[in-house]
Amino acid sequence: MGIIEKIKEIEAEMARTQKNKATEYHLGQLKAKIAKLRTQLLEPPKGSSGAGEGFEVTKYGHGRVALIGFPSVGKSTLLTMLTGTHSEAASYEFTTLTCIPGIIHYNDTKIQLLDLPGIIEGASEGKGRGRQVIAVSKSSDIVLMILDASKSEGHRQILTKELEAVGLRLNKRPPQIYFRKKKTGGISFNSTMPLTHVDEKLCYQILHEYKIHNAEVLFREDATVDDLIDVIEGNRKYMKCIYVYNKIDVIGIDDVDKLARQVNSVVISCNLKLNLDRLLAKMWEEMGLVRVYTKPQGQQPDFSDPVVLSADRGGCSVEDFCNHIHRSLVKDVKYVLVWGISARHYPQHCGLGHVLQDEDVVQIVKKKEREDGGRGRFKSHSTAPARISDREKKAPLKT
Ligand SMILES: Nc1nc2c(ncn2[C@@H]2O[C@H](COP(=O)(O)OP(=O)(O)OP(=O)(O)O)[C@@H](O)[C@H]2O)c(=O)[nH]1
Ligand SMILES: [K+]
Ligand SMILES: [Mg+2]
Predict the structure, then answer these.
(1) Among the listed residues 355, 359, 342, the one whose alpha carbon sits nearest the alpha carbon of residue 291
(2) Does ligand 1 lie within 6 Å of residue 118's CB atom?
(3) Residue 10 Cα, ligand 1 centroid: separation in angstroms?
(4) Where is the OBG-type G domain positioned along the sequence (predicted)?
(5) Per-residue model confidence as pLDDT tens digits over 274-333
(6) Domain presence at residue 254
């Protein structure tokens, strides 16, 4: 029996089993069995190297965004509109067969947008180009799930289920469960609060299914069996996802209004160029990129060429900023001067641990170098920290 058949069989058994206190342990065990099989399914076939032909696109720019959706929802049309790179669009399904990259220029950063083939129900089991599409999605920073506004709401659930089946968790944070395997000592099970979904026996049983007999488990929230399995599997990817409803030109205004009110959702029309700026703004917000402008001593910062940091990718401290400029820079830094949101006053003297915010300006003061800062134009700002305004960006900085 193949892996997919085994999964199907267990799913059928779960469907047959009544949910009650008496069956809860058995159901938990079945869930763990399915999770293990799915992980097996994800292992790349022997001899293959990662993504697959037509899907090996080099990362470029300050972030990567994947377009995921059923066939013919308008993914390629959107890529062409936002990036200027042409990706074939047509009224028939599966027009796109490979991964097509484009670049969005936004807020002085470059964001790589990836058009992908449409995926269908069963993608997680390898139907269509499911596997490749999913692998590329996992390599991106956020996902735009493109949906046809005129089609059933069920599509969003089907896609979410497919992505969950391969370990993607959309708009969720990792479960607050501390888990550590040990060599000896048995299993220690603790929680910081009363648990309503999982008890010690169920936890033991799940761990047993994974042949784990020595471990420390601490629940810091009232998590579920699925959460526990996610933590044990350890290969889950937690990603932001924006639900993008395209083709609102073909539905009524009341329906548009309903879709637009859902969380993490943006309604657009590629045909009428409606709301694309809102989509870009939302995308930017969710990516959480932090632009930092370097100010050479005695000179203007270059406001067109930021160092771009991200909390998810490498961090946003002064040290991360320095490493971005040059690996060997950190050891020469005495301190830095910071203007912008993260500074309590202008300029603030900060160390390597200071966390920077979007649009901060930083001047590096090196060891054995005469300090020239502190006479900057922003020094007079002794009030609450504020964003460097557009006016200030254009005005000369006198240091
Ligand atoms: N009415 C309407 N049609 C649209 C809109 N955007 C795209 N389309 C049409 O939808 C069809 C499919 O567009 P594509 O861009 O090829 O869709 P896709 O998601 O890339 O499709 P596959 O690559 O086959 O998965 C084309 O006929 C487009 O002209 C829109 O905003 N409104
Ligand atoms: K199409
Ligand atoms: Mg396409």
Answers:
(1) 359
(2) yes
(3) 38
(4) 63-288
(5) 999 999 999 999 999 999 999 998 898 989 899 999 988 889 999 999 999 999 999 999
(6) yes
Question: Can you give the residue range of the structural domain that contains 156?
Answer: 63-172+237-287
Which tokens hold the place of 108?
Answer: 């002085």
Angle at which helices 200-209 and 225-233 pack, to 10 degrees?
40
Q: Examine the predicted complex and report whether its ipTM is higher than 0.90.
A: yes
What are the phi and psi torsion angles at 324 (to 5°)?
-65, -35
Q: How far is CA 64 from CA 205, 239, 267, 309, in A?
A: 40, 12, 21, 13
Pocket test for ligand 1, best of 67, 68, 72, 159 (most atoms within 8 A of CB): 72
Residue 330 DSSP label: G
Structure tokens at 254: 């009341």
Structure tokens at 176: 């607050």
CATH number of the domain that residue 362 is part of: 3.10.20.30
Among protein residues, the one whose CA lies closest to atom 24 of ligand 1: 94
Instruction: Decide: 270 in ligand 1 pocket, CB within 6 A.
Output: yes
Is 48 contained in some domain?
Answer: no
For residue 273, the ligand closest to its alpha carbon is 1
pTM of the model: 0.86
Say yes or no: CB of residue 223 within 6 Å of ligand 1.
Answer: no
